[in-house]
Design goal:
Helix content: 25-40%
Order of helices and strands: HEEEEEEHEHEHHEHEHH
Number of helices: 8
Structural class: alpha/beta
Number of strands: 10
Strand order of the largest sheet: 1-4-5-6
Largest sheet: 4 strands, antiparallel
Low-confidence stretches: none
Radius of gyration: 17 Å
Oligomer: single chain
Distance between the termini: 32 Å
C-alpha cells in the first residue's frame, strides 16, 4: 500500500529476525526510525505475526509495536511548517498513508497512539495551523479519544472513520479514489 517513495522518505526498514539495540532484543518486523531534527532518537518496530511450523497463527503474540528511545515524539513534524491545515492520526502507517495521498496539501503527523496525544502540547505544536483534523480509529479507543477532543478547540475537527476501521484498513477496503473522496467529503462537510 505504501509506495516506494513513501517508504524511502520515512526511512523504513525491515528486519526478518530479532536484533540487539541499546541493550534490548527487538523482535523482527518493520523498523520505523524516530527522528528529531537530524538525529535518530530511537526506533519503533511493527512486529510481524508469529506462526507455528504448520502455518497456524500462534496464540501468544508479541506487542504490536516495540519501542526503544526516550520521550514522546511526533512523526513527520516538519510537514506542519509547509501547510496551514494538518491531519493527526493514531498510528505511524496511517500517517504515512495519509501523507502519501494528501501530503502535497496538508501536514500529516502522528504521536504514535491516542495516549501520546494527551502528553503533547497541542496548542504550541499547532499554533500556526488554521485547522487540524484528528483521524482516530473507528474502535473504542478511537471513539474515546475523539470524545476528549470534541469541542476542545474550534480549529480542531474530527474525521470520523467507519466503525472497525483505521486509516490503513479503510484504504485497503476501498479504491484509492473512494478513499480520497471520503476524506475530502469529511473536510468539506465540517468547513461548510
Amino acid at each position: 500500500l505504501l509506495l516506494p517513495h513513501t517508504i524511502e522518505q520515512f526511512q523504513l526498514g525491515y528486519c526478518a529476525e530479532p536484533f540487539e539495540i541499546g541493550g534490548r532484543t527487538m523482535p523482527g518486523g518493520i523498523v520505523i526510525p524516530l527522528i528529531s531534527g537530524n538525529s535518530i532518537t530511537g526506533f519503533k518496530v511493527k512486529t510481524h505475526p508469529l506462526f507455528d511450523e504448520g502455518g497456524l497463527l500462534l496464540p501468544e503474540q508479541p506487542p504490536k509495536y516495540w519501542r526503544i528511545g526516550r520521550g514522546s515524539y511526533t512523526l513527520n513534524r516538519n510537514s506542519l511548517k509547509l501547510h496551514k491545515q494538518s491531519f493527526v492520526t493514531e498510528g505511524e502507517f496511517d500517517a504515512m498513508l495519509l501523507h502519501q495521498f494528501f501530503g502535497h496539501r496538508y501536514g500529516v503527523v502522528t504521536f504514535g497512539g491516542t495516549s501520546d496525544v494527551n502528553k503533547a502540547n497541542l496548542s504550541a505544536l499547532f499554533l500556526n495551523q488554521e485547522r487540524v483534523w484528528f483521524c482516530y480509529d473507528g474502535d473504542d479507543a478511537g471513539h474515546k479519544a475523539a470524545a476528549k477532543m470534541d469541542g476542545k478547540n474550534k480549529r480542531f475537527q474530527l474525521v470520523h472513520l467507519p466503525d472497525g476501521h483505521d486509516i490503513t484498513s479503510f484504504a485497503l477496503a476501498n479504491r484509492t479514489e473512494d478513499f480520497m473522496d471520503y476524506f475530502e467529503s469529511q473536510i468539506v462537510e465540517v468547513a461548510a
